[in-house]
Design a protein that fits this description.
By secondary structure, this protein is mainly alpha-helical. The chain has seven helices and no strands. Helix 4 packs across helix 6. The mean pLDDT is about 80.
């Protein structure tokens, strides 16, 4: 009987105080005011960060992620070993991540942990 009463009450609509609703609305509005919240800002920051990479790193990143080349193809074209190409891409991803954090469009993993 207690559970039936609880289920019945749970299905009834719950109304919030006007002040609570206004605070929730204010919180949602403040979310839109942070830098990097829009895709346009993220894409713009990513383009900036890619352009800021050293030439060989930028070429590797663009070849891999924009042109869809394999690591073997990039290594052959760049005249480096596959392992060197993998390391170049790894370092480039770290530089991109750091740049995106500095631009304020990405949260540092150190902050999360």
């Amino acid at each position: 009987m207690v559970m039936a009463h609880h289920r019945k009450r749970s299905s009834l609509p719950q109304f919030l105080d006007h002040h609570v609703l206004m605070e929730v609305d204010r919180q949602f509005e403040s979310i839109n005011r942070h830098d990097g919240d829009t895709w346009e800002e993220k894409i713009s920051a990513l383009k900036y960060c890619i352009d800021a990479l050293p030439e060989n790193s930028r070429e590797a990143v663009c070849s891999r992620y924009l042109d869809g080349m394999t690591i073997n193809e990039i290594a052959d074209r760049s005249g480096v070993t596959v392992e060197a190409c993998k390391k170049r891409l790894q370092r480039a991803r770290v530089m991109l991540s750091d740049c995106m954090v500095r631009k304020g469009v990405m949260v540092s993993t150190a902050t999360i942990q």
